[in-house]
UniProtKB/TrEMBL annotation:
Cofactors named for this entry: Mg(2+)
Organism in which the protein naturally occurs: Nocardioides massiliensis
Lineage: Bacteria, Bacillati, Actinomycetota, Actinomycetes, Propionibacteriales
Keyword ATP-binding among UniProt keywords: yes
Catalytic activity: tRNA(Lys) + L-lysine + ATP = L-lysyl-tRNA(Lys) + AMP + diphosphate
GO-annotated molecular function: lysine-tRNA ligase activity
Gene designation: lysS
Name the UniProt record assigns to this protein: Lysine--tRNA ligase
Subunit and interaction comment: Homodimer.
Family: Belongs to the class-II aminoacyl-tRNA synthetase family.
Binding site for Mg(2+) 1: 419, 426
């Protein structure tokens, strides 16, 4: 007989191959609990201590085997291991954060009837309350010697076992079950919570004000993306789910919130892959009298502080190298990067025909209606982006592809905008924000014409935003960071694992 911990995957009931039969048997046990008056789902159960608290108090005491501490406790947890034979039963309980402890139910301590009921009614996966004394077993295992037990919630479905582990698809689709059986899944949830806390702390320290802005929008603005459409019955009005937070945050800044930010859900009705989701979390922040360079400093602080908060300032890259987030971060012009990749000098004046010839040489497919600016960006995305492993601020974008950014202070035809690429993935973007309402109207009108011609990603003319700008918007820097992509960087998982319950195709 052993009282050592065993993983739930290897200790789940061997008959889990027949789930319908297991459910029938468990349903009968539920009915027996209810008919006996004990209940299968009571309102409350005894609980005086968390398993974590008991572990923290006793683990450092170096208790000898067969020690009785005299400490009486009532604990709760999910059953992840059972040994139900003879006069001594072992059950291992786990609480939500992964802390585990063994409970021992002996005939001498608990009595014949409660012991028999335990053997007959408790299964792996059940939520249980156990009362008793904290002891160490003959093997030195910290345990609770039970004097009573109570069912907290009867599980009608079994946990996965070693014969039927969850597939990768099932781990995403049944995330709650994945979290029960895999510590890595639980850890990602807590890492993301720590990242969010660190992001807010960094901004709060810099006196940014957190606000909430509408998810339902009348127009499509703030990014180049295809929106989700819906209908507001009260107004009989077609509406869109926001693709970005930008325009409403700028209106708040115009109103006097000089440093403003939001962490919120955004929605883009586009393709899904390892770095793109239909619904995801964005951080956007705007600082009056800032610019793209103040946003570089802010980006470094936000990402480094988040990495420090979870103890992951060095992460393994997709190519096996190490990304040290505390090291220097590169700044490079998109024109220079594309020139390096193609072996040709490319500038803002390079004509579209020449760029198309370069793209053909490198087997980069282009759309027929793309101009020079779109071609430069496509060359960058196809030939350069994946190779940028170490943190790189890709700067000086063509004006046409960043319509909400201010013209470059020194180079005609370019805007003051950057994208931050780490591990070959765009993690964030920032601008010296355009605040001339006349130029902004011209650029949005150009975008609205593209939308009218059928471009589903083009921005629409937002008269509410333009009217606010016409009251005077201060010079500003603005930044957007993909929260889920930051979690991906720090944990090494894909975007579906970084989102707790991602949108999936129906079964």
């Amino acid at each position: 007989m052993t009282d050592q911990p065993t993983s739930p995957e290897h200790q789940a009931d061997a008959q889990a191959d027949d789930v319908p039969e297991q459910m029938r048997v468990r349903r009968e046990k539920r009915d027996r609990l209810i008919s006996s008056g004990k209940g299968a789902y009571p309102i409350a159960v005894p609980r005086t201590h968390t398993i974590t608290a008991i572990r923290e108090y006793f683990d450092d005491q170096d208790l000898a085997p067969d020690t009785r501490t005299g400490q009486q406790v009532a604990i709760t947890g999910r059953v992840i291991f059972l040994r139900n034979t003879g006069k001594l039963c072992f059950v291992r309980l786990r609480e939500g954060n992964g802390a585990e402890i063994q409970a021992m139910l002996s005939l001498a301590e608990i009595g014949q009837d409660p012991l028999d009921e335990f053997k007959a009614l408790v299964d792996i996966g059940d939520l249980l309350s156990v009362e008793g004394e904290v002891i160490t077993s003959r093997r030195g295992e910290l345990s609770v010697a039970a004097t009573s037990w109570t069912m907290a919630a009867k599980a009608l479905r079994p946990l996965p076992n070693e014969h039927k582990p969850l597939s990768e698809e099932a781990r995403v689709r049944l995330r709650y079950l994945d979290m029960i059986v895999r510590p890595e899944a639980r850890e990602i949830v807590r890492v993301k919570a720590s990242v969010l806390k660190a992001l807010r702390a960094t901004l709060d320290e810099r006196e940014y004000v957190e606000v909430e802005t509408p998810i339902l929008q009348l127009t499509n603005g703030g990014a180049a993306a295809r929106p989700f459409k819906t209908h507001l019955n009260a107004f009989d009005q077609e509406m869109l789910l926001r693709i970005a937070l930008e325009l409403d945050l700028k209106r708040a800044m115009i109103g006097g919130v000089d440093r403003v930010y939001e962490i919120g859900r955004t929605f883009r009705n586009e393709g899904l892959d390892s770095t793109h989701a239909a619904e995801f979390s964005m951080l956007e922040a705007y600082e009056a009298y800032g610019d793209q360079f103040s946003m570089i400093a802010l980006a470094k602080a936000l990402i480094r502080n988040a990495a420090r908060a979870v103890g992951r300032t060095q992460v393994t890259a997709r190519d096996g190298s190490i990304i040290d987030l505390e090291a220097e971060w590169r700044e490079a012009s998109i024109m220079d990067l594309v020139s390096e990749a193609t072996g040709r000098t490319i500038t803002a004046e390079t004509p579209a025909d020449e760029l198309r010839a370069i793209a053909a040489q490198h087997e980069v497919d282009l759309k027929d209606d793309w101009g020079a600016a779109e071609i430069v960006v496509e060359l960058f995305e196809q030939l350069v982006e994946d190779s940028l492993i170490q943190p790189t601020f890709v700067m000086d974008y063509p004006a046409e592809v960043k319509p909400l950014a201010k013209p470059h202070r020194a180079q005609a035809g370019l805007n003051e905008a950057w994208d931050l690429i780490i591990n070959g993935v765009e993690l964030g973007a920032a601008y010296s924000e355009l605040n001339d309402p006349v130029i902004q109207r011209e650029r949005l009108e150009e975008q609205s014409l593209k939308a009218a011609e059928g471009d589903p990603e083009a921005m629409e003319l937002d008269e509410v935003f333009l009217r606010a700008m016409e009251h005077g918007m201060p010079p500003a820097g603005g930044i957007g960071i993909g929260v889920d992509r930051l979690v991906m960087l720090l944990t090494g998982v894909g975007i579906r694992e970084s989102i707790l319950f991602p949108l999936l195709r129906p079964e």
